[in-house]
Amino acid sequence: MTTPAEPLLICDLTQSYAPHGGGGIGTYLREKRRYVIDHTPHRLLQIVPGREDRIVEDGRHIWVEVGADQVRGSPNYRFIMRTKVVREVLERFRPDLIESQCPWVLPWTAINYRRAFPHTALVAGYHTDFPNAHIYRVGSELFGEFVGRGLRRLATGYAQVTYREFDRVYTLSAMMAEVLRGYRVDHVDVLSLGVDTALFNPEKRDPAWRRELGLTAQGPLLVYAGRIDNEKRADRLLAMFRHLPGELDAALVMIGDGKLREALCDEARGMQVAFPGFMADREALARALASADVYVSAMADETFGISIVEAQASGLPVVGVSSGAMPERIVPGTGLLVDVDDAAAMAAAVMRVWQGEREAMAQAARAHVAGRFEWHQTFEQLFGEVYPRALASARARNEKGRFNMGAALSLLPVSRLRREGSGR
Length: 424
Known about the structure:
- The protein is an alpha/beta fold.
- It folds into two domains: 9-192 and 374-405, Rossmann fold; 202-369, 3-Layer(aba) Sandwich (Rossmann fold), CATH 3.40.50.2000.
- It is built from 16 helices and 17 strands.
């Protein structure tokens, strides 16, 4: 399929967003804006939560912030609940295609808008398997396993009803596509996200970075970049670090912010562990990753893993877990995978990487990413395959609707048709 030829107004609809301290969604929105402006004739409307209502129009890019409260426990994030304001924005700008980024309330704002403006095509990005990663995990922790399973069934039903309303749904891994098909959502595309391999590059390595963090350890420098919270299982990384032998003289850097950061800082006091916070400067992040030796992540529900491919592009082998999309990202020869929540096994894997063929793994990781997970490839597929399929589905839906209306009218008595047509 080919990229839509006629200029369209495309809308990104994001319910939960963090301008500082967030990861994948923020990167996706930035890179998409760059691609649309530099490589397409289209206009882009991006709606996100913010401190207050504001609209900034800059040529073909329209940035809309809807005033929203901060998320309790994750102050960098805001969450839109004012759906009426979102609907007003949609009706003001009248997008041709809406891409929904979050699974909660705003998908139904888009669905209801489409019912009023039926020519609108709807695309959903299924970035997280929320019935498992959010509903089941939190429900089980708060109320026990039995209630957690019941809540997951309800969330799965919601996902089935919601995503069948969309013209296309894309997800970020073959594993997650199978999950959606299990929810009886079949109109699914698999879209790989990307990395700027010129920016994230082993050449950015700087031995001074370790000293700048106040770390004196001379052994392997482990790094993690992402939210420091329960969903990412960030506490498991500190548990893993405690299992490393003292003679290894290792250090750990946890880049990011989140509700576990303060507690983990206190727990790691006196250890060779640094918490530099969220790095909004992408150049600084690229330097940080390239200056480390091994990337570590305990996230069990990863749907793609932008931070993982950024680490691989930076020339780092990865030690992760055998769950979610990690087996698709960390192919043999580029790192090691262990069981979820097994801190001792993760520490042993770090030892095997460090004492084994780390340089070969680093080169293989870079080679695995370069030319395969580039942002231009992501958006060429989105605009060349996913969007045309959604637009075709919208056209077919409208044609079917017109046919059904015509068939219904043909069944009415002729005299009644005349009366209705005359307005009497």
